[in-house]
Amino acid sequence: MASASRLLPPAPPPATPLHRPRTRSHLAVPRLRCRAASSAATSSGAALLERGGSAAEVALREFVTLDELRAAVRLRVRTFCEYAIDSVGAEDHRKALADREFEALQDRISGKMINFQRVSCINGTVPLSPSLMTADELCSMCKFVEDGEERVVVGSLDLNQCLWLPDELTGKRPGVNEDSQTRAYLSNVCVAKELQKKGLGYALVDKSKKLAREWGITDLYVHVAINNIAGQKLYKKSGFVYEGEEPAWKARFLGRPRRLLLWFDMNKEPL
């Protein structure tokens, strides 16, 4: 699942893109299921990806190093940009997108971007294991090294404390006469294709809500494409409700599916 609200800058496609999903038959990936358990691992910011009778811990946290941040950006490009393996210029195009988004994300996090009061990148990472080694593209693009251990970013999102996101619908809460600085948006929500529909997206959103509460956020928003049914189900499960939708003319002008704007009331229930 990938959220419709993403900040990756648009760019022209490579010379011969093929508009069909990449085949994954050559990838041997673990059959994992993510569960949220009332365990020490979960309370410390982790989720469990289960495989058969065993479980692998997914660390859920704000990014720590720039290498991790770059790996998260590569996962986003891999998720949001589809190419056939033999597309001419695909690798160069993805690298250029990743470099540009890496710089832009650093600017947002460091406070250089107007309107963004505070931004954090939240990632789900796992140790690089034999079960992931055969997913060559995922591991080569999205891995980083921390304390001598190779890890892979398998899920990511941004939490943005701001009044609005560029080219997106603006949330209505809190109103203009209230402290609108307590509004925040989720963006760039993505999970590695091989690990989707296993609960990791829900765990990432849940982690973002906890951080938003620490920031004093009262109203949390996310945008999702009207044809992204999986994303809508995820956000509904996470407690988001419909607030509005993008007009058709704007979506046509921007060359994309229409967006829905969903809202979560941070005061509604304790996390």
TrEMBL record:
Coiled-coil residues: none
CDD domains listed in its UniProt record: NAT_SF
Residues in N-acetyltransferase domain copies: 163-267
A Pfam short name: Acetyltransf_1
Domain of life: Eukaryota
Any one GO MF annotation of this record: acyltransferase activity, transferring groups other than amino-acyl groups
PROSITE patterns (alphabetical): GNAT (PS51186)
SUPFAM superfamilies from the UniProt entry: Acyl-CoA N-acyltransferases (Nat)
A GO cellular component entry from the record: chloroplast
InterPro entries: Acyl_CoA_acyltransferase (IPR016181), GNAT_dom (IPR000182)
Chain segments carrying region Disordered: 1-24
Protein name stated in the entry: N-acetyltransferase domain-containing protein
